[in-house]
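Appendix B. One record, verbatim.
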Amino acid sequence: MTEPIVLDVREDLRRGREPFHKIMAAVDALAPGQELILLCSLEPRPLYKVLGAKGFSHRTEESDDGDWKVTFFRPE
C-alpha cells in the first residue's frame, strides 16, 4: 500500500489563507488507493461534499486541542 499524503493546513487557516487550491492539488496528486490525511484547525465540512462528488469517503477525528484529522480515501 502506498504511504498517504499528509497535508497540514492549520498554519494557512491561522494566517487567514484559503487552503482549497492546495488541498485540491494534493487530491489530484493521489495515486490509486492512496489516502490524503488532512490536518486542520476546523472541521472541513464543505470538503466532504466536494470530495464525495469525486468518489471519496472520509474518516474524521477531533483531537483534544480542537484540531482535526480527516482521512480521505476512495472505497474499494
